[in-house]
């Protein structure tokens, strides 16, 4: 294909764990790459970099917006997802259509100032807007687009302490234990379930006496 421009990429620092994700959406125009990134033992997040060529026919725009909708639906909703890149949606009408899709999928677009001339083309979209802050644009002098940056806060997942109660069977005096088991009064219950529950309760009491549970 002989076309000018395009191409996407994600640069990742060496101390971050990352892997490429396959997003199974067939599209003739959109270019995108998706990665899962994690720092140490913090929760991982997905970042998707997208480029939409500046093709403005109604058919192409509608198809691209439908594909963006499909991509959002395929991303895991319980994980922090970030979509960013040059979307080339330069009119209020197309931005409105995009915002309708984002609202339906519980996403939000955070860039509020133009990134090329008077047009807002370069976007940051996420399903966890409260974790992204300080969204800004900068002049880089190497492109006619402004650079869009943000800072992300990732909260550590609180681990709930778990305690296990165990019995030390080495403490059991099996002679005395067996004697008490044989001394359990035989009581005939109305059903098998009641009979089993009666036996289990008595055995449990004896176990608690000779090998109590300890943390």
Low-confidence stretches: none
Beta strand %: 15-25%
Shape: elongated
Structural domains: how many: 2
Order of helices and strands: EEEHEHEEEEEHHE
Please outline the major beta sheet. 6 strands, mixed
Q: What's the CATH first level of the largest domain? A: Alpha Beta
Residues in helix, %: 25-40%
Round the Cα radius of gyration to an integer and report it.
31 Å
The name of the CATH topology of the largest domain is Deoxyribonuclease I, Chain A
SS-derived structural category: alpha+beta
Overview of the structural elements:
The chain has 2 domains: 17-152, Deoxyribonuclease I, Chain A (4-Layer Sandwich); 166-214, no CATH class. The protein is elongated, with a radius of gyration of 31 Å. The chain has a 6-stranded mixed sheet, covered by helices on one side. Helices cover 27% and strands 24% of the residues. With 215 residues, it is of the alpha+beta class. The model has no long low-confidence stretch (mean pLDDT 90). It has helices spanning 58-74, 92-104, 174-182, 192-210, and strands at 17-21, 31-38, 45-51, 80-86, 108-109, 122-126, 132-138, 147-152, 166-167, 213-214.
């Amino acid at each position: 294909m002989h076309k000018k421009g395009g191409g996407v990429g994600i640069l990742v620092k060496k101390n971050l764990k990352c892997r490429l994700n396959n997003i199974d959406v067939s599209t003739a125009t959109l270019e995108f790459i998706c990665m899962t990134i994690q720092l140490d033992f913090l929760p991982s997040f997905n970042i998707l970099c997208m480029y939409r060529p500046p093709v403005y026919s109604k058919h192409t725009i509608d198809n691209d917006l439908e594909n963006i909708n499909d991509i959002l639906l395929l991303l895991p909703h319980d994980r922090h997802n970030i979509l960013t890149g040059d979307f080339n949606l330069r009119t209020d009408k197309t931005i409105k259509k995009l915002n309708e899709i984002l609202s339906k999928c519980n996403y939000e677009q955070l860039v509020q100032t133009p990134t090329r001339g008077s047009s807002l083309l370069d976007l940051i979209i996420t399903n966890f807007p409260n974790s992204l802050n300080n969204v800004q644009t900068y002049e880089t002098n190497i492109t006619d687009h402004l650079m869009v940056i943000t800072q992300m806060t990732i909260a550590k997942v609180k681990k709930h302490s778990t305690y296990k109660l165990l019995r030390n069977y080495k403490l059991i005096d099996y002679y005395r234990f067996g004697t008490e088991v044989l001394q359990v009064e035989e009581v005939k219950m109305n059903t098998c379930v009641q009979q089993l529950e009666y036996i289990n309760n008595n055995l449990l009491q004896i176990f608690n006496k000779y090998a109590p549970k300890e943390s």
